[in-house]
Amino acid sequence: MKILQLHNRYRAHGGEDQVVEDERRSLIEHGHRVWCAYVDNSDLVGWPALLATAWRTSYSRRARDATRRLIARVRPDVVHVHNLFPRLSPALFDACIAEAVPAVMTLHNYRLLCANAIFLRDGRVCEECISGSAYRSVLHGCYRGSRLASLPVAHMIERHRRRDTWGSDVACLITLNAFARDRLVEAGIPRSRIEIKHNAVADPFDGEFAPPRDPGGEVRALFVGRLSAEKGLHTLLRAWRGLDVPLRIAGGGPLASLRDQREPNVRWLGPLPRARVFQEMRRASFLVFASEWYEGQPLVLLEAMAHGLAVISVRTAAMSELIEDGYNGILVDPGDITAFRAGVARLAADPALREHLGRNARRHFLTRFTPARSYRRLMEIYGRVVGQGAPRSGDR
């Protein structure tokens, strides 16, 4: 097949960018021809550039026309869109329709329904915009804490909700789990337009799998992720006070200054390349995951499972699809610091439990999140939409 990938990269390389790259590599390895059209936000500096981009967020004729020219030149069988915010805009789907090529879109977050894309406001879960108007986000300043910046994002959401872009113009929306699919259905997007395809990570063990061991008999916990409020970092650090368990924190982000507090038993590693993260996972006793938003399918959890690591995580509907309490990890209710501490203490004191949960985590990874399974599922989706053909402009 010939596939055209479209993606608006993030300023800081993250899990979504990694998924796009891994998927591209997998398709090429299986003999497909892949063209990549990536844009980024690196030159969005200063008010003139920001205002111009905000104006085009809802509908960029420039992106539409450029996409149409690219499709006409490449003639792909399918166009696969990942992140389109803010530079690509939903206008590119009109280009796909005009060129009679079906488009699929992987939803890595909740931007189609929520201005800040994570259903989190003031540290609490918020779903007001699912059934109500997205313009509520302007009142709350949901996007980057600014009412002005929230306005074009809210307008994009409302414009394409009224236009039925997601129900009429996109051949298939791909979600990472059933929870995200159900949020879209609740917002009025036809269930028949939505498919679930899991993320995947490569197996880090070329030879025989060996579960993690505690180096020198030391039990150590590991956190890997963006250092930001929605990742639950404040909650994690409060929970760790009083725990006699070493915690290693890998990552960078807006809350990196927290390292200056010099919490006992906490070592800050800073941002690490993927290979170094894997080294940390091989040496860790278990992984801690404290995100307070509806995470989709974070790669760090899949990587931990691949390494046979037990995980203690906050219990959300999305995380409950990944982690079964007592089988491949431990789940605690959001905000329950006492339960989180108890779970950490329990894992630290019981090596047999860690090995039991870790081996089950590894088994769960092998049955659901390998690149081979992800590729087969993607081919099923591509085959269906190519067989159906592209939506027609008169279908709206």
What this model shows, in words?
With 396 residues, the chain is an alpha/beta fold. The protein has 2 domains: 2-200 and 371-395, Rossmann fold (3-Layer(aba) Sandwich); 215-368, Glycogen Phosphorylase B (Rossmann fold). It has helices spanning 15-29, 47-56, 61-74, 92-98, 128-131, 136-140, 147-163, 165-168, 178-186, 233-240, 274-283, 299-306, 317-322, 337-349, 351-368, 371-388; strands at 2-8, 33-39, 78-81, 103-106, 120-121, 124-125, 172-175, 194-196, 221-224, 247-250, 266-270, 286-289, 310-314, 329-332. The longest helix has 18 residues, at 351-368. The chain is globular and about 65 Å long.
| Strands in their spatial order, largest beta sheet | 2-1-3-4-7-8
Shape: globular
- Give the full name of the CATH homologous superfamily of the largest domain: Glycogen Phosphorylase B
Gyration radius from CA atoms, angstroms: 22 Å
Helix percent reads 40-55%
Following the backbone from N to C, one meets helices and strands in this order, namely EHEHHEHEEEHHHHEHEEHEEHEHEHEHHH
